[in-house]
Write a structure and sequence with these properties.
The chain is α+β, with helices and mostly antiparallel strands and 132 residues long. It has helices spanning 2-32, 59-75, 106-113, 118-127; strands spanning 40-44, 47-51, 89-93, 100-104, 129-131. The longest helix has 31 residues, at 2-32. 25% of the residues are buried.
Length: 132
């Protein structure tokens, strides 16, 4: 019975830590993306979703959101510990949530982009992007 209680306590702690990390990710994203005035930012099941107030997310908007918004604070180390550590995908969508882009492994992608020239960083970003 003691092992069962310990297992339940461990699961509860892990769920609490995961929920806290997701809340921190959303708060950090809200700060990072203030310039783009997103209408919604949420994270569920290790997928962060950013809904922009635009009919279309152009390649230029997507590039700016990722490079200047999402990755910049990762490169300057101005994000909390654990930021996007478990986030598998980052969806950048139009206001209708019908079209946009998906960045795979955003933290690893940002880390890798930060070590490269601007052109090479864009190639890395696009190689880990697919349409929504």
């Amino acid at each position: 019975m003691l092992n069962f209680k310990a297992a339940i306590a461990t699961v509860a702690i892990l769920l609490s830590i995961s929920a806290h990390a997701q809340t921190n990710n959303v708060k950090t994203l809200q700060k990072q993306l203030k310039l783009w005035q997103p209408i919604e930012i949420k994270e569920n099941n290790n997928v962060a979703t950013i809904v922009l107030d635009a009919n279309q997310v152009t390649p230029e908007i997507y590039d700016a959101v990722i490079s200047s918004g999402i990755c910049m604070d990762v490169w300057t180390k101005d994000v909390p510990n654990g930021y996007m550590k478990t986030t598998k995908e980052l969806h950048v969508l139009n206001k209708h949530k019908a079209m946009g882009y998906v960045l795979e492994k955003p933290l690893a992608t940002c880390d890798e982009m930060g070590k490269e020239s601007t052109e090479r960083a864009k190639v890395i970003m696009l190689s880990r992007t697919h349409l929504y």
